[in-house]
Amino acid sequence: MANRLPKAAALIAAVIAVPLGAGAATASPVTKPAPQTVQSASQAKALAKLLHQRSDHRATAKKVAPNAAGEPTTGRLAGADRYATSVAVSKTSYDDKQLAGGTLVVASGMQFPDALAGGPAAAGIGGPLLLVPPNGTVPAGTIAEIKRLGVESIVIMGGTGAVSSGIEDQLAKVVPFVDRLYGDNRYETAAFASYFTWQFDEANPDAEPTPPSVVYLSSGKTFADALAGGAAGSIAGAPLMLTDPASLPDVTQFALEDTNPTEVRILGGTGAVSGAVASKIRMVLPNVKITRLGGANRYGTAALTAHNLGLPTGGAVMLANGSTFPDALSASTSSAVIGAPLLLVQQKCVPAETFKAVNELEPRLIRAIGGTAIVSNDALNGKPC
User: Would you say residue 342 has pLDDT above 50?
Assistant: First the structure.
């Protein structure tokens, strides 16, 4: 397959030459670098290494305590729109200046393809995923949240068709460093984002990074199965890669071979990701364990994905509407912070698969993502469909 690795040299040199952090005052001012575009696997690796070096103020897991009666506490994270909801999720997950000098990821709140892999990528470098409009003006609340967190770097998911250069320019006025992960298509963008989940040895910067042992794989044509997979990947430290339902894209195959995981977890049944894709993975990774997490519908797949994590009971779960993507995307990095899997509901009620999964997890906290027009109080309180 064609490999665009040779494109890396100029950008890697430019990125690595940029001073890290605010630093001490110098005799001459430092020129602010222009936003950079990552368009190869080696560029993505180099940027991931740099961002791991910057992001040394990681969020620590937050404990979830029961209420006085020992029953689950219910809550809601919501704003006036999808952008404000993503800010609300971030505010609950991270304290003021907790990510000082670190990184966050932004993605389009209107288009899902390039955004799907953003949650695990953001979790991999210790920051949230915030949604922005594809063009126009970045909401004031989003700008305020970026400043509250204290990050120095922002990574944009996708090309200018997903998040415009005008939005990029506005973000570049808020933080010193802006980079863009931009593949030729959604599959390549997700492949680039997967390197953000690799682990880099801060004590030995020259050491080879450690790839994740697990990869989640979902159809890139729809968002239904990828929503819970992104949250699960954030918890497991695993990337979410995308595939065409009928065949494994070359760029995804390359990323899988480069990662060489011990397990690939396919999200959805054969109607979502065909048996031919699984067979191709087996061909290129003959020793890999392939686990298919496919329910009868998106709710069942999300429930199986949550169960597969093997989390202890008594934690937290998050509920998102399974028919829309924005709020569930925002919740994915919060999953890593509080160790809460994402389960899907309908707007007015809880499907049987989700109801069973909640009962099995025995959570102390049940949190809805989005307003009542997205997840009603009836659904939050467990009304069966």
Answer: yes
Categorize the per-residue pLDDT at 70 as very low, low, confident or very high, splitting at 50, 70 and 90. Answer: low
- C-alpha closest to that of 192 among 128, 108, 234, 251: 251
Angle at 161 between CA 158 and CA 373, to 5 degrees: 85
Q: How far apart are the first and last CA of the chain?
A: 47
For the chain, give the number of residues. Answer: 385
Closest CA to 243 of 272, 207, 285, 214: 272
Alpha-helix residue ranges (DSSP H) falling in the chain? 8-16, 41-54, 82-93, 118-124, 140-149, 165-172, 186-194, 224-236, 250-259, 275-284, 298-308, 326-338, 352-361, 377-380
| Collapsed DSSP state (helix, strand, coil) of residue 135 | coil
pLDDT at res. 8: 31
Report DSSP letters for 339-354, one per residue: T--EEEE-SSSB-HHH
Q: What is the mean pLDDT of residues 70-79?
A: 89
Contact 305, 328 (CB under 8 A): no
Does the structure show a pLDDT above 80 at 293?
yes
DSSP 211: P
73, 380 Cβ separation under 8 angstroms: no
Q: Is the pTM of this model over 0.85?
A: yes
The reported pLDDT for the residue numbered 33 is 52
Sheet containing 289-293, strands listed edge to edge, beginning at the edge strand earlier in sequence: 240-243, 214-219, 263-267, 289-293
Strands ordered across the beta sheet of 365-369: 73-77, 365-369, 316-321, 342-345
Closest Cα to residue 88, out of 317, 376, 325, 327? Answer: 327
Q: Provide, rounded to the nearest whole percent, the portion of the chain with pLDDT above 90.
A: 78
Residue 279 — left, alpha, or beta (φ > 0 → left; ψ -120 to 50 → alpha)? alpha
Element (H, E) at 319: strand 316-321
Mean per-residue pLDDT, 119-128? 95
Residue by residue, what is the 3-state secondary structure of 12-68? HHHHHCCCCCCCCCCCCCCCCCCCEEECCHHHHHHHHHHHHHHCCCCCCCCCCCCCC
